[in-house]
């Protein structure tokens, strides 16, 4: 596959992720609740969407999703459920979007974006995750590795 096709596949995966995650971020801001079914569909799409390195890339994206699920699941348990279940599923989708390293970069960006929030604030975390992911896409070789 040529570079243009790889870039197109990366753009398509990112566009689908963006549509669903931005809608979830606005829903989280407005209601502090997020429907999980679209997030499950998004995770499946991101993991299994074929590309030129399909079996290997599928395993890497699944590994990213599992790493995100494990780390945020532990974070949810340790924080006494201050981290919502939808936050865990959105993190899993981010891991499935770009793999473990991309997830780590996005999560770090989200945490940095949340630093100015007041202690004890019931601030929604999904908007920070989505913003951190968008920032990470622009500062990483995401589209070159579609």
Describe the SSE topology.
Layout: H1 3-31, H2 37-48, H3 54-78, H4 85-98, H5 100-114, H6 126-138
Helix pairs in contact: 1-2, 1-4, 1-6, 2-3, 2-4, 3-4, 3-5, 4-5, 4-6, 5-6
Quick summary of this structure?
The chain has 146 residues and is mainly alpha-helical.
Computed CA radius of gyration, to the nearest angstrom: 15 Å
Helix content: over 70%
Strand content: under 5%
How do the helices and strands follow one another from N- to C-terminus? HHHHHH
- The number of helical segments is 6
Biggest sheet, open or closed, and with what strands and sense?
none
What number is the mean pLDDT?
A: 83
Describe the 3D structure.
The protein is mainly alpha-helical and 146 residues long. It has one domain. 74% of the residues lie in helices and 0% in strands. It is built from six helices and no strands. Helix 1 runs antiparallel to helix 2 and helix 2 runs antiparallel to helix 3. The protein starts with a helix and ends in an 8-residue tail after the last helix.
Keywords:
146 residues, mainly alpha, 6 helices
């Amino acid at each position: 596959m040529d570079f243009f096709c790889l870039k197109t596949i990366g753009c398509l995966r990112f566009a689908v992720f963006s549509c669903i995650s931005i809608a979830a971020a606005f829903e989280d801001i407005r209601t502090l609740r997020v429907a999980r079914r679209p997030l499950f569909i998004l995770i499946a799409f991101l993991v299994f969407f074929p590309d030129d390195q399909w079996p290997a890339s599928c395993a890497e994206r699944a590994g990213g999703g599992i790493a995100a699920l494990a780390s945020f699941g532990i974070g949810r348990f340790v924080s006494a459920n201050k981290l919502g279940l939808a936050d865990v599923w959105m993190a899993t989708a981010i891991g499935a979007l770009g793999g473990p390293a991309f997830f780590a970069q996005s999560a770090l960006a989200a945490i940095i974006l949340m630093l100015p929030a007041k202690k004890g604030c019931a601030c929604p975390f999904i908007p920070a995750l989505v913003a951190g992911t968008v920032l990470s896409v622009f500062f990483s070789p995401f589209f070159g590795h579609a």
